[in-house]
Amino acid sequence: MSDPKKLFIKTYGCQMNVYDSERMAEAMGAEGYVTTEVQEEADMVLLNTCHIREKASEKLYSDLGRLRALKLEKPNLKVGVAGCVAQAEGAEILRRSSVVDLVVGPQAYHRLPQMVAAGGRLVDTDFPVEDKFSVLPARKVTRGPAAFLTVQEGCDKFCAFCVVPYTRGAEVSRPVARLLDEARGLVAQGVREITLLGQNVNAYHGEGPDGAWGLARLVRELALVEGLERLRYTTSHPNDMEDDLIAAHGDLPQLMPYLHLPVQSGSDRILKAMNRKHTADAYLRLVDRIRAARPDILLSSDFIVGFPGETDADFAATMDLIRTVGFGMAFSFKYSARPGTPAAEKDPVPAEVADARLQELQSLVTAQQRAAQEAMVGREVSVLYEKPGRLPGQMVGKSDHLHAVHVQDEAGRIGQLVRVRVSGSSSNSLAAVPVSAAH
Ligand code: 5AD
Ligand code: SF4
Any idea which ligand is nearest the CA of 318? Predict the structure, then answer.
């Protein structure tokens, strides 16, 4: 028998791409491919791309440039481009880069094995009628006790800056029964924590046994799965935070006290221009309701600075909102004009103004992040061990609040959920020691 062929996948962008990359690896696994971490030894290289900002898109072409040498050395090397750049640019990628053999969009990647078998240079950016998840082989857990599970894809919100409604298409929710099956399968393979993924995850409305279910019902049902200790979900839109989901944060111990709830801006004028369909005040009231249900919840958000038309006063309103909420974590970006989106037609804010605002915003949220971490020192928290640390006798995992924690634990095992006491806080993680050997 010949050696199995090797597949190298590079994943850019969001957690859904991480999930998709795993599913593509499984699809190619069924064709005899094994994954490798070493690009040079690959028979096939798959770049799972992100289109959200210009910089993310550009990475594809610089990586393809670097692959040229490898392809010269290994003429049979197959190069595939998947993900949102594949969806947005399609055949243009084949024209721009001669090393590329296959271009496959996020809704068509279950057809990857057929494309590879067919040979030649092919593009598939369809939104097929068949559900890719029902065609793909069953999940194989390779990444430890915390797994992603895509429950919803696409977006109908059409924020003026965002390519997602175009690259991922309209909102589609997976049926409840399939998700329960997938979750149970993951748990049977040792998974203890599942993060439900969707571009608009809290707009989930999948088919249940008695009509459409919202995310709250799905989460409540998943909480009944024996052995599933922790649930999270991301990313949510403020307008889709239904009452029962907020209530679930108060009464479901499995639902972790961390919520990524992007607001993008604190200025009503800019929120309107962004087509976010809510005000800053509505967001603040929502935060109050969430905190009433779960007082220790840690909130995180995305921010865009330098959106077309953003004035100093608009930016000041964003900074005020950040001070009012106090985020445990935040991701901030300079506005990037994306082809085909409404905002791309408008005059940009000067780059140096946007740069200065980004710096100012980032120093505020970094200070808030640090404060949230330091507030954990001395407290007892739970950590799910995901891997050994770099130092001997050390385990690394996430706390309920999604802080990375390094635990001094000689006997620690991957997949254990351990009570620890936080002893220190550094820039990106906490240090801790176990409080009991009971687990
Ligand atoms: N420019 C800058 N940031 C963007 N995001 C989405 N589109 C753009 C854009 N055109 C940010 C938003 C979103 C996150 C995933 O990426 O903040 O929440
Ligand atoms: Fe993009 Fe807005 Fe949809 Fe989020 S809600 S994916 S930012 S269009």
Answer: 1
For 8, the token pair is: 């190298």
150 cis-preceded (ω within 30 degrees of 0): no
> What percent of the residues of the chain are helix, what percent strand, and what percent coil, each to the nearest 5?
40, 25, 35
Residue 14 annotated in ligand binding: yes
- Nearest ligand 1 atom to alpha carbon 337: 10
Cα 339 from Cα 92, distance rounded (Å)? 14
Question: Are β-strands 430-434 and 417-425 bridged in parallel, bridged antiparallel, or unpaired?
Answer: antiparallel
Task: Kindly state the tokens that stand for 354.
Answer: 């946007």
Is the pTM of the predicted complex or chain greater than 0.90?
yes
Summarize pLDDT for 49-87 with one digit per residue, the tens: 999 999 888 899 999 999 999 999 999 999 999 999 999
Q: 333 C-alpha vs ligand 1 centroid, how far in Å?
A: 7
- Amino acid 2: pLDDT: 67
Please, which residues bridge with residue 194 across strands?
147, 231
CA atoms of 193 and 50, how far apart (whole Å): 25
Element (H, E) at 363: helix 351-374
pLDDT digits (tens, 9 = 90+) for 149-161: 999 999 999 999 9
Q: Is 84 annotated among the ligand-binding residues?
A: yes
**pLDDT at residue 201 in the model:** 98
| Strand-by-strand arrangement of the 146-150 sheet | 146-150, 193-197, 230-234
Burial annotation 40-62 (CB, 10 A radius, 16+ → b, else e)? eebbbbbbbbbbbbeebbebbee
Residue by residue, DSSP assigns 70-105 as: HHHH-TT-EEEEEHHHHHHHTHHHHHH-TT--EEE-
Residues 6+ apart with CB under 8 A from 88: 51, 57, 163, 166, 167, 339, 340
Closest residue by Cα to atom 2, ligand 1, is 335
Give the residues of the chain that fall short of pLDDT 70: 1-2, 436-439
Please report, for residues 217, 227, 294, the alpha-carbon distance to residue 224 in angstroms, rounded to integers and kept in the order given. Answer: 11, 9, 20
For residues 87 and 105, is the Cβ–Cβ distance under 8 A? yes
Determine how many CB atoms are found less than 10 A away from the CB of residue 412: 22
Question: Distance between CA atoms of 199 and 186, rounded to whole angstroms?
Answer: 22
**298 is known to lie in a ligand binding site:** no
Cα(379) to ligand 1 centroid in Å equals 35
Ligand nearest to the CA of 237: 2
Is 50 annotated in a binding site? The answer is yes
Which domains are delineated in the chain? 5-124 (3.40.50.12160), 140-353 (3.80.30.20), 380-434 (2.40.50.140)
